[in-house]
Amino acid sequence: MSYINEAKLSRNSITMTLKSDRIQGILKSLGPGLLWAGAAIGVSHLVQSTRAGANYGFALVWAVLLANLFKYPFFEYGPRYAAATGESLLEGYLRLGKWAMGVYLLLTFGVMFTIQAAVTIVTAGLAAHLFGIELTPLLWSGILLVICALILMLGRYPLLDKLMKVIIIVLTISTITAVILAISHGSSVKPDFKPPVVWNLAGISFLVALMGWMPSAFDISVWHSVWTLERKKQTGYAPKLKEALFDFNLGYIGTAFLALIFLTLGALTIYGTGEKIDPRGSVFASQLISIYTSNLGAWSYWVILIAAFTTMFSTTLTVTDAFPRVLRRSTELIFPKLKDNDTRWIYFTWMMIVCSGSMIILGFLAKSMRTMVDIATTLSFLTAPVLGYINFKVITSDQVPLEAQPPTWLRVLSWVGLIFLTGFSILFIIWRFGYYK
After folding, report:
1. Does the N-terminal or the C-terminal CB of the chain have fewer CB atoms within 10 Å?
2. pLDDT tens across 178-210, in order?
3. Which candidate, 326, 363, 360, 367, places its Cα nearest to that of 346?
């Protein structure tokens, strides 16, 4: 009997050790998925999802769900590739051909200044409310970019990783609290309100914009793969494929959930009231807070404000890190001799370029902001099927071990997603440049 008991104890000990190792592996792998969520939960959620609920109530829930479903594979391939090969997607692009790297860099250079400027100006408007300091939007934008740059220069990736986990927790709690307040308040629809039609020119144009940027642009799949490798450097632990995908799925599902939360906020507090949301970043922030508090009550001011600010600050911070980080890695790949030296200066140089370019846009071209955002959005949207196809080709190439390549269901979903993205790109072209004039 003693031998049997000892054997049972030994098996139990081994089982507990294995469980402990799995938990430790998951904890060491957590981080890149939350950074991805921080980058994605921004304009597409606070602005677009809120507008979807404000303009159409719950009629566009299906659009948010479909966009997240059909884009899932192409974002998932970032951490999958990094975990399977120990490289970022940039290496995969280069192995696929210089043209693939060229497409990605062309898109990056085409949108980085405008995206950085757009997310910063919305955050600046919210910061003015949060801290109660009346400064110009340009000055607040400069202060925020300096704060983000200092965080990244002094703390580097480890501080970004720790800070983002706190921000995501605050964001989630405050946003869920806000929607609970909205649900308890009930619908604000006026008795004589007539629901707008989705399937007309205005509805289709908004639908394309909503789905095109939900949950984000495909280029951040590269950001995720780079952050996965940075996390590996930080912890000294190479995540297993399942661990890396768990981290990604946690961030991705959370991002989709918060998109529905912001849509619900818009639907319950603005839909049917006759309020119109101003698309200008500096005006949008103050207007959004005003609308929410007027409908929910002044006591909800801080909950709404903290939820909105953490949403946009997380995006500003991660974008400030992501563009310089991927451009640093791209520079190292294009000029291999640089890899033998300390290349942190390349990261800081690109950061200064991105921030400076964004401030120039905000300072001198603010009146053309809508046009520039339209151009950046169009470029990202139309290249989505191309980047999606490139990600699919890279993850199914010979450089990825067979056991790490996507399973059949994910391959099928990839092709369905490519058809979906191509179809909406064609619809966008018809709407933007074709018959609807």
Report:
1. N
2. 788 778 877 777 777 788 878 877 777 788 778
3. 326
Q: Are 323 and 354 in contact (CB under 8 A)?
A: yes
Residue 275, number of CB atoms within 10 A of its CB:
17
Does the reported pTM lie above 0.90?
Answer: no
With 50 as the cut, is the pLDDT of residue 437 above it?
A: no
Q: What is the mean pLDDT of residues 279-304?
A: 70
Among 424, 425, 426, 414, smallest CA distance to 389 is for 414
Residue of 273, 212, 219, 184 whose CA lies nearest to 44: 212
**Are 159 and 315 within 8 A, CB to CB?**
no
In whole angstroms, what is the distance from residue 55 CA to residue 39 CA? 25
Residue written as token pair 């018809």: 430
State how far the Cα of 300 lies from the Cα of 314, in Å rounded to an integer: 22
- The domain spans of the chain are 31-433
**pLDDT by residue (tens digit) across 160-175?**
777 888 887 887 888 7
pLDDT tens digit string along 105-157?
988 888 889 889 888 888 888 898 888 888 888 899 999 999 999 988 887 77
- Computed over every residue of the chain, the mean pLDDT equals 82
Q: What pLDDT, on the 0 to 100 scale, is given for residue 179?
A: 81
CA distances from 177 to 42, 67, 182, 300, 420 (A): 18, 25, 9, 10, 34
CATH top-level class of 31-433: mainly alpha
Count CB-CB contacts under 10 A for residue 381: 22
Q: How confident is the model at residue 436 (pLDDT cuts 50, 70, 90)?
A: very low
Residue-wise burial string across 240-261, b where 16 or more C-beta atoms lie within 10 A, e elsewhere: eeebbbbbbebbbebbbebbbb
Report the interhelical angle of 369-395 vs 408-433 (nearest 10°). 150
Distance CA 256, CA 184 (A): 23
Contact between 418 and 388 (Cβ < 8 Å): yes
Q: Write down the residue that tokens 């791209």 correspond to.
A: 330
CA distance 307 to 176: 9
Query: Which tokens hold the place of 100?
Result: 């693939």
